[in-house]
Amino acid sequence: MKNELPFGTQFSPTQINNDLSLLLKIIEDNEGDDTSVVIDGIIKNFFSTNAPDQQRTMANNCKNSLVAYGVMESGGGVHLTEFGRNLNVTTTA
Fold first, then answer.
1. Distances in Å between the alpha carbon of 46 and those of 43, 91, 93?
2. Neighbouring residues of 34: CB distance < 8 A, sequence distance ≥ 6
C-alpha cells in the first residue's frame, strides 16, 4: 500500500525550532531565486549545529518536505504556493 502522507522529519516542529514563520520568511525573501539560496538559509537558521556533512542533506529534506506538503512549488526556483502564501499570512498575523 502506497503511503499518501509526505515524509517530513526535517520539517517537524522540533527540527525547525517551532519557528514556521521564519522558515516561510526565508522562502518569501528568496522568491524567484535558485533553491540553493533557500537551502543555505535553512542550514544557517535551523541546521548549523548539526554535523557539517549532514547539514545540506537535512536542509534539502526540509525543502523537499515543503514541496511535498504543498507549501512550495516544485521546480523552477523558489516559489510559495497559494497555500504557502496563506500559511505565511497566518503565521505572521
1. 5, 18, 22
2. 77, 78
Q: What is the DSSP letter of 14?
A: T
Contact 10, 58 (CB under 8 A): yes
Helices assigned H by DSSP within 1-93: 20-29, 35-42, 52-68, 82-92
Per-residue pLDDT of the chain (93 residues; tens, 9 = 90+): 555 666 676 777 777 877 899 999 999 999 999 999 999 999 999 999 999 999 999 999 999 999 989 999 998 899 999 999 999 877 666
Are residues 60 and 39 in contact, defined by beta-carbon separation less than 8 angstroms? Answer: yes
Calculate the CA dihedral of residues 74, 26, 86, 8 and round it to 10 degrees. Answer: 60
